[in-house]
Each structure stands twice: as C-alpha cells, then as structure tokens.
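Example: Knr4/Smi1-like domain-containing protein.
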Amino acid sequence: MTFQHQLERLKLQWNDLLETLQHKGADVIHIYEEPVKDNQLAELEQQLGIELPDELRQMLAMASEARMGWTLPHESLVPFGANGDWGWSFQAIYWLDVWQLEEAVNPTRYLTFCPGYNGDSLVLDMHAPSKQHAVLSWNHETGDFQFLAPSLGEFFERVTIMYGIGAESWQYEPFIDYSGLNVDHPHSLKWRAWMHDYVHLTLEKAQATLEGLIRYTEVSGVVDVSLRSAFHHFAPELILQAWQKRINEESDRGIRETLMKYIGDICYTHAADWVRSLWRSHAEERINASVLTYLTVRCLPESEGLKLVFNELEQMEQTSRLNGYTACAWLKPFTSRKVIEWMFLGQRVSYPYDGWDRLFACSAPSAEDIWQWLGGSTVQQQVVISALAMLENVQTIFPEQAQLQHTLGLLEQQLDKAVTKKEKNLVNGAVHALNKL
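Written out as structure tokens, the predicted fold is:
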C-alpha cells in the first residue's frame, strides 16, 4: 500500500471517529484545507534549504492543513486526562529554534510539522539521510524530545489506534517506552479499552451486570433516570459493594473520588453507613472535603449531616478564624436555612466577607432572615446586601409585594448610611437586583 492510500484510509477512520465522538457529546475540531500548490512547496523548500521528505509532501498534497481533535465532556473520568489533537500544517513547517535547547544542536535537524496548543511540537528528526524520518515530540518547557515512531506513516497509524491522543508532549508520556508510542503498553491497553467502551457501550448492553452498569456510568458520565432505574434491578447492598470494589481498583485519586460521588447519586441512603465510616477516618486520611460533603448531603439525614459539618468547622475555629470560602465549600451543598442560623448565632462572619455572601445566598434564605441580617452587625449587613445581588429565587423569598417594599426600604436606610463609594455601589447592586421584580 502506498503512503497516499494509507492516508486516504486513515482519513476515513478519522472522519468516522470524530463524527462518532461529536454525536456522543464531545467537542471536536475537524479541519481540512486546500492542498498546497507546487509553487508554495518550492518556495518553502528554498527557505528551508532542503527537499521535503516524500511522506510530508504527500500529506501536503492532501491538505495544506489537517487538524483533528476532540475533548470529551466529562474530563474528570477520562484516564490519564487525555484528549485528542493530531494532524499537520503547512504554516507550521520550519526548523525548530535550537537556541532554546541547552546542548549544541544542528540548526537544520528538527523540522516541525504540528504544533501543540501549549507550545510543544511534533517534529521530524532530519539527522538520518533516509526517505523516512522519525517522529518526535518536543517539550517546549524542558527542551526534551520523546521518540514516537520511526516514520510519519507509522506515527499516524499508532495515533489512530490510540484515538488521536496528542499533540502536547505530556499526552504521550503514559504510553511511551523504548519503542516509542506503544499501542500495546499496559496504559495504552487500558486507554483503548476505555475509549472503545466510550464509543460503543450502550445502556442496553451494559444493564445485564452491575460491572457493566458501573462501566457505562464511567464512560457516559451522566446519571439520569434510566440509569438509576437499571441499577435498581439489583439489591442495594450489592450495588454498593460493586461500587466499592471498583473504587478500590482505581489508583487515580481524582477518578476514585468521582466514582465515590456516583455512589451518592445512585445509592443515596443505602450508602449512609459507608459515608459515616468516611467521617470516622483520621483527618489526614479523609477524602476531598467537597466530595465528603457531596456524599453527606445525598446519603445522610440533613440534621445528621449538618451536625457533622458544623462540628468539623467549629474544630477549625479553635485554631484560626474561619473564612467564608472554607465555610462555603463545606456548607453550600446543603442549601439549608439552618446554615444561616448557624452563621448568625455564632457571629461567624468576618472581614473579608467573600464566601460568606455566597453561602448566605445559596442557603434558602427567607425574607425574615434578610431583615434580621440587615439589622445585625456591620459585617452581617454587608454580607446580606452582597448576597441579595446573587439570589436566584427572589420571587420565592418575597412572594408578597409588601415584603419586597419593606426590604427596599431597609436598603434605602443602608444607602443613607453608606460612606464610601464601594459601600454605595454594594447597596445599589442589591436594589437593582430586587427592582427587576
């Protein structure tokens, strides 16, 4: 098979892959520009001082630029954080600036043909006087090269099998050994199996077993009614055990914690004892606070969950003043008025109040809460005024026009007392938000 025929075959595979991924919800890039003209090639070769390798010339005869790429819609569960980016560009063909390299290098050795979006680049090693030249990945930060394949044809074959990963240097690292980009490396096999399931696995195929459903959850990244219904054909304790088994198999901490959140989405109160066991872990062994809170909200009764979080935050207060961002991270998922009461009675808000305002706004405040805070300390007043501009359910909070007018009157009093421009702008922002009603 000639290289031209190989390219035509690969192009069809690339088109099918990108169309499938786009249908699955991925963001894709799919660019084919007009072929390079003979006079343009001649001019480039004169500038470079060489005759371009035959494989590269044939690529440019297909398209002056071919850029393919994809990003999946739920990156947290994508193994190795990979995404797709491959191709070539006539405009990107030039000698690599060797002044960036620490060691002395022939300035006409490395010929770039595909830049990565972060500044890395795919290059041809022109050192060996042969018809085919090795493809390397160049890291623009370290100046290091990674051998990927002995030729352009072999490189694109390997990248296609790997679903188009690249073109930034770090994308290749998990899959490289002495032979370059190894499609049979253990990491490569894991990646290829995951992507195969992402492309081909359906809920209908997966629902026969818990393992299949868990795999489908991972690759789809969406927990909806139909998926929950499929899980509920199995006993709750078996569902939890299957998820725990999958979590214990996973070495990537970020993926492990996302898998834990799926337990909350699917098992709910059936996972309550498991969530309680997570709280009993030593602080240094605990999972990410946002994940622990997420599970607490979904799996434990509100009163029990809030008590656990309140105790955690109050222990923090024993060593340093609690800041709003930390409190918001732990308490925002509850969307509970009890949080506002805890904030007020403990006089916990302080300057800078960033984070406290967001927490107030998302904790289902009532009109009475807002009036109480407007009559509180100076920092409490500023917290609630700032929060008023963040509210998304104003009509629910003020179902009666009289309540709204009373609140606007209190804000007018705050505006009269405001001294600085910043304070006046804060009050005016709250008034503007309420006047939209």
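The chain is about 55% helix and 10% strand.
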